[in-house]
Amino acid sequence: MKIKGSKIGGGNRVSLGLPSIFLLCLFFFLAGFFGSSLFSQQETPGNIKPLMRETAEEKKIEFEALQNGETGEESVEAIPFQILSWYPRALYFPNFATAEHCQSIIEMARAHLKPSSLALREGETAENTKGIRTSSGMFISASEDKTGILDQIEAKIAKATMIPKTHGESFNVLRYEIGQRYHSHYDAFNPAEYGPQKSQRIASFLLYLSDVEEGGETMFPFENEQNMDANYDFRKCVGLKVKPHRGDGLLFYSLFPNGTIDPTSLHGSCPVIKGEKWVATKWIRDQEQDEEY
Ligand SMILES: *[C@@H]1O[C@H](CO)[C@@H](O)[C@H](O)[C@H]1NC(C)=O
Questions:
Q1: Based on the number of CB atoms within 10 Å of its own CB, is 188 exposed (0-12), middle (13-18) or buried (19 or more)?
Q2: Which of 10, 43, 88, 236 has CA 20 to 30 A from 259's CA?
Q3: Is there a domain that residue 293 lies in?
Q4: What's the pTM?
């Protein structure tokens, strides 16, 4: 009992020191708290929040504009993109144009739509190529659009590609209704099939003007050299598929840097299953285009 008592007594002595223990605890708690946060910042940069702050700071540094040249621009512009593939060289530009601009382009094109045509190869006629490309479309140049929207989009495409707008053909605005499609094809013209070319298409920029509920994907059946055997059926929707999304842009290069045609740039439009697909296409050439474009 006494022993217990003395223990209790000891307890009493301890209880006398409680405030100091309390302070000690507080000290260690605070030391541990700040110490750990210091530790986590210095030793674990993988920690999500510091990493996010770091990238934000990195971006700030990246975005500091340099003294521009006489033909340059004062501000730094962000045009985000994703590399969709290297074979073909395809980039995706989310939110390239606003929904309002897309709708305006649809409205300006709607009244002028005609069945889309094809560049014909030897032996091909409108009759025997019927069904390859079943969309409707129209051509409109930026200068014909008095609202200035196409001008703005054309300028942005020139920035994103760094190919001057004088190298672009007119916009080809296309509508694909249910069941309509474009079988796989090349945008570039192989001289062996089409004869000598005054200029060649380097790249294509597709601006999706509408969402499509189902189908209507842009497909690259030979992406990464898949399906490239002789058995590929040009109607088949396989390979890399890009689902249309209003306002987003898709850029791909038809030519290698050495000017020959990239076989993996073969592409088509899968049939629309539900909804309607609207797209504005800009073909970009290696030569400046005449006024007629
Ligand atoms: C052009 O470039 C491609 C891709 O790098 C290459 O496969 C091809 O052999 C080249 N062709 C010529 C004629 O140099």
A1: buried
A2: 236
A3: no
A4: 0.79
